[in-house]
Automatic annotation (TrEMBL):
Biased composition (Basic residues): 171-180
Composition bias, Basic and acidic residues: 202-211
Domain of life: Bacteria
Entry protein name: Mlr2029 protein
Species of the source: Rhizobium tubonense
Location of the region described as Disordered in the Swiss-Prot/TrEMBL record: 171-211
Amino acid sequence: MLTPKKNDAAELIEAWTLPPAATLGSFIRSKGILLEIRARLPFALRKSLDISGRVLTLTMPEGSEDKFRATSDFVAKSLDGIENLPVIPREIEDILTISTTERHRWLNDGRLPSAGTRTVKLRGRARKITFHVFDPRLVEDLLDRGVVEDWREEDAATAAENRRRAAWKAKLTRSLKKGGKTSSVSKNRPDEDNNPDLPGWEEFRRDGLLR
């Protein structure tokens, strides 16, 4: 921590550099940490604290030494353990370079575990919103392992398989209609010997699309 000093504009200044474990390489995360600490300060003092890159800076005019010292001590205590501050949605999207749709998909299927929820009131509104937050160490691990691209490849393969299955089912339905059959497929698994003349049936049965 730097000791308070005066600049040419007769201001008291103190600065803290946020550790990489706290920011996870994201300016949005750094800004989130600023807003978190600001929210803990008295309203009149909030704009005295600002950020540039990973550096938090407290600035007050000359003559407010006591208030400056108390605020500085408070900021320093607030930064203790800041690397454990839960990651909010917009931060994880920036850190992992993912879309909101991907975040929702991977949260719902369990690949992106939630660390709980947080409820906040929107500024100037009565409505509150609740959202999932994430463990920063989990996010760091996902970032280090580079799993996002693997997940995207898995999703693409699943989407392609779903399209293939849908195409086969559509083909079977058309074949049944052409053969004078009902368009509803029996719930019991058909036996190929009972459908010797059905076009495409062998490929359909082999791919296991009715399993």
